[in-house]
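S1.2 Input.
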Amino acid sequence: REIGVPVVILGGPGDRSMSEQIAGLAGAAAIDLTGRTGLTQAAAIISEARLLVGVDTGLTHMGIAFSRPTVALFGSTCPYLDTTRDHAVVLYHKLPCSPCRRNPTCNGRFDCMAAITVDEVMNTALEVTQKTGQAAP
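S1.3 Output.
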């Protein structure tokens, strides 16, 4: 909302718990479609996105492939740090335990993801949308 784009939350049925938390924080402006779209519908939404913020999933990789401004958050998986695309940025903080490949040694706290701050994501999102001309006027 702060950068002038509507918030649409996508994911599979197993992502509902997390999406409800995100939607609660995003407020009334969030449209939570988690578990309510098929892959084709999700791809169509992503192909028109003015910004995509996501974790290491197929949907995030779609955003990069569709040349959508993308902020990819990596923690427990091994990231590619250079996307070779101007419209995509990877945020990743290397910790002694990462990448753990989703077998956390931090008792499930996923310290690697917690190390990525909201301000860092917002600043990166602003940069990538401004660079690509996708920010709202």
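S1.4 Remarks. The helical segments are 16-26, 39-47, 58-65, 111-114, 118-132.
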